[in-house]
Design brief:
Blueprint (H helix, E strand, L loop, with lengths): L8 E6 L2 H9 L8 E3 L10 E2 L1 H4 L9 H7 L4 E3 L3 H16 L5 E5 L2 E5 L10 H16 L3 E6 L2 H8 L7 E3 L5 H5 L12 H9 L5 H7 L1 H8 L1 H10 L16 E12 L4 H21 L7 E8 L4 E7 L7 H10 L11 E10 L1 E2 L5 E2 L7
Parallel strand pairs: 2-4, 7-8
Antiparallel strand pairs: 1-6, 1-7, 2-3, 5-6, 9-12, 10-11, 10-12, 13-14
Amino acid sequence: MSESPQRKIIHVDMDAFYASVEQRDDPALRGKPVVVAWRGARSVVCAASYEARVFGVRSAMPAVRAERLCPDAVFVPPDFVRYKAVSRQVRGIFERHTDLIEPLSLDEAYLDVTVPKQDLGSATAIATRIRDAIREETHLTASAGIAPNKFLAKIASDWNKPDGQFVLKPAMVEAFLAPLPVGKLPGVGKVMEAKLVALGIATCADLRSCGSDVLERRFGRWGARLHELAWGIDARAVQPERPTLQVSAEDTFEQDLLLSELEPHVRRLAAKAWAGYLRERERHPERIARTVVLKLKTADFRVLTRSLTAAEPPTSEAACADIACALRDRVALPPGTRYRLAGVGLAGFAAPDGSPAQDDLFSG
């Protein structure tokens, strides 16, 4: 039997996508530090142009902090209708080359071009063709990483940003990863990175020398996974049609609220989540959500979730809202605790074969 061909994966990432769309559509914004966000103490940055990033402005930071870092920034409210339209246009470009497309968000996706629709000679040539078409047809730029798996392709796409691409051939992987800081590995946030550094593990080379068994004893299955990533091992396939595992809605309040004041907001968010769930049911009527989740974020940014999987799944918006409100009783923080954000979601979807397909709600 012949071996399967080496996978050829491309990760395409649009450059400062939301901000770039705004600069494209409004010439007065070009060359200026653009921050896509609503102004206000409760707002967060959706995107920042490269001119704004020079000042340290980054996505997901509070808008007030962005304004302090870059007083001359031009704040533009997000327009997701336009961003989704451009994303669909880019998706059409991808589809000229492969049907194996796994979107991660509006502005990035994995493509498996092991067996492409057009024989351009190499995955590198396909990535170049895609980026050229994006530039010509959308007047935006994208960066790309080409590698034998998803993990490596995502790292490579960030290597020559903006408007560049980087190829990681199999023979290059071991040497390329050895000096890479552990903070560059997916899933290693600042807290995990600090734990690893405290153990003398700062790079992928350090992870390799530590050994899989040692890491697994210390961190469980995640430790073994880290050891695999340090060697560039990632067997995940590109998944064009990932089933929905969660439908949710969340909101940051204008003022921090007590738990007892949250009911109208929880019911409003439950209505939004239920509407999204009904849209999902229209596409996949056989998939039923069995779990209701309440997410809360305290004024000091502590995040907690409470969930309930009932014997019978919720069958109405009101039932969903009732469960979400009741979940507040399982929050054991002091009565004076104030909350800046709430979210309601439905999860625990039944898979087509009837088995549960559950994942962490609001994970990202």
